[in-house]
Design brief:
Layout lengths: L2 H14 L4 E4 L5 E4 L2 E2 L6 H7 L6 E6 L2 E6 L6 H5 L5 H7 L4 E4 L3 H8 L2 E2 L5 H11 L12 H12 L3 H24 L6 H14 L3 E2 L4 E3 L19 E6 L1 E2 L8 E6 L6 H20 L6 H18 L8 H7 L56 E4 L2 E3 L2 H4 L2 H4 L8 H5 L6 E3 L2 E4 L7 E2 L8 H7 L12
Helix pairs in contact: 5-6, 8-9, 10-11, 11-12
Bound molecules: glycine (GLY) and manganese (II) ion (MN).
Length: about 475
């Protein structure tokens, strides 16, 4: 992305917030020993306003001027890290008005007490709290409220430039899903298929937006184990997406049979999740409350549970009103996405719920990460699922309100089924339907069945 975009963002931030603003970047973090660092990921707000993905930086924004604070390169940085720019050259390249050494920042921040926000690096956040006197704790006390409101206002609605990057990132990520589907065969280890998926992203210059979920135990929602060999008869769930060089995420989930052929039960459940997703996507447009998008998907899942006689003596609307669908679709239908996969989530529910509103505490909807009327230019995921989770069905307190409508014997007959989720990234527009950025990842039963196992066998990967 061109530095002039970041400069324009800083200008608009400086004009919107009265007084000086200090944005901090993350520092490098050691992987157990000095000099061996974890992969660096910049704080997304800092990245949005600077375009600088390097540790140990800060930006001071005041009115129309912005200053970049960096530690000047040491002589041996050239040896260990290659060519290093002077701080003046970095600042000029990124459109800053001025460069200053980082060690001048503390005295200035202590004297002027700028508005600031917490960053994931707790040492940096503690430093900012000490300088400014603000009670900053990442994820809990995220910082100056007017500054946060302006950051949310800017970051939540994606510009055409951002959408172009997200479109390209989602397209490649969808291709990576196709590649993993084609490479799937009984005998391939989940870890190897994960590497196949990630190799495709790498081959197109993308990193990972989050740790890839690739599992035959899709009912474990964030299952990062990759610890089993693919077996015919099982469903495989892949929730993975690439990250662009500018830091934009994609987040796509597909579920397919390891053998390429759905069993009758797998197919019925898969088509229900697909129909739930279609109903949700059909509804998503500017002005529609995201909770209603969630409810549209929930009603389709509830009808499936009724058709399978897992629920009885109830209609779908009543089942959803009572929350019975959440026993099998226990999470929200999606979330904002952008520079972070759950975009802006570090500011709590501020970007996602109206001021003063709080989450519906009912099981299921308490995990709904967004409930506002949607706006054109927001990018959200739509990701309903169906899961048979022993920890839910075995929990008498979760089942307690449903004794009259839940047929536990029928439900228990689904034990070991696993989970299905289908997830796309969509751009909200004024009129429906939204643009589906990840449409290139196949999801109809016929397309998926034809693609699974169709790639050249990766013999060395089959155990
Ligand atoms: N991709 C994982 C999630 O949305 O939670
Ligand atoms: Mn997601």
């Amino acid at each position: 992305m061109h530095p002039s975009l970041h400069a324009a963002r800083r200008l608009s931030l400086g004009r919107a917030v009265s007084g000086p603003v200090l944005l901090l970047g993350n520092d490098a973090r050691a992987r157990n020993l000095p000099g061996a660092d974890l992969p660096f990921r910049q704080d997304s707000t800092f990245l949005y306003f600077t375009g600088l993905s390097a540790p140990g930086a800060a930006a001071w924004i005041e009115g129309g001027r912005s200053t970049l604070y960096l530690t000047p390169p040491a002589v041996d940085d050239g040896l260990w890290h290659g060519h290093v720019e002077s701080i003046e050259d970095t600042a000029a390249r990124l459109g800053f008005d001025e460069a200053r050494p980082y060690d001048e920042l503390g005295p200035r921040a202590t004297a002027q007490r700028p508005a600031t926000v917490a960053v994931p690096d707790s040492a940096v956040t503690a430093r900012a709290a000490a300088w400014t006197g603000a009670p900053l704790v990442y994820g809990e006390s995220p910082g100056d409220e007017p500054l946060i409101a302006e950051i949310i206002r800017q970051r939540r609605t994606k510009s055409d430039d951002e959408l172009a990057v997200m479109r390209a990132t989602a397209k490649i990520s969808a291709e990576a899903h196709r590649f993993a589907m084609a490479a799937t065969r009984p005998g391939v280890h989940e870890r190897a298929l994960t590497a196949v998926f990630e190799a495709y992203l790498a081959s197109r210059g993308l990193g990972l937006a989050y740790d890839t979920i690739l599992t035959q135990r899709g009912e474990v929602l964030h299952n990062h184990a990759h610890d089993a060999v693919c077996q015919a008869g099982k469903l495989l769930l892949l929730d993975g997406g690439g990250e662009s060089v500018d830091g934009y995420a994609s987040d796509i989930t597909r579920t397919w049979p390891v053998s390429g052929t759905f069993t009758g039960r797998q197919r019925a459940a898969y088509e229900a999740v697909l129909a739930a997703q279609a109903a949700a996507i059909d509804l998503a447009r500017a002005g529609v409350r995201y909770r209603h998008v969630h409810d549209a998907a929930s009603r389709v899942i509830a009808q499936f549970l009724i058709d399978e006689r897992i629920l009885r003596g109830v209609d779908a609307d009543t089942a959803v009103a009572r929350g019975a669908h959440a026993l099998f679709f226990p999470h929200g239908v999606g979330h904002l996405i952008g520079l972070d996969v759950h975009d802006l989530r570090n500011f709590g529910d501020r970007p996602a719920y109206a001021p003063g509103a709080s989450r519906d505490p009912a099981f299921g909807t308490r995990y709904l990460r967004l409930d506002l009327p949607l706006e054109a230019g927001w990018v959200v995921t739509i990701e309903p699922g169906f899961y048979v989770v022993p920890a839910i069905l075995g929990d008498a307190s979760l089942r307690a309100g449903f004794a009259d409508i839940l047929d536990l014997d029928v439900a228990e007959g689904w034990a070991g089924f696993g989970g299905i989720r289908i997830e796309d990234d969509v751009v909200i527009r004024d009129a429906a339907p939204p643009e589906v950025l990840s449409a290139h990842a196949p999801k109809s039963v016929d397309e998926v069945s034809a693609l699974v196992g169709s790639g050249a066998p990766l013999e060395a990967l089959i155990t």
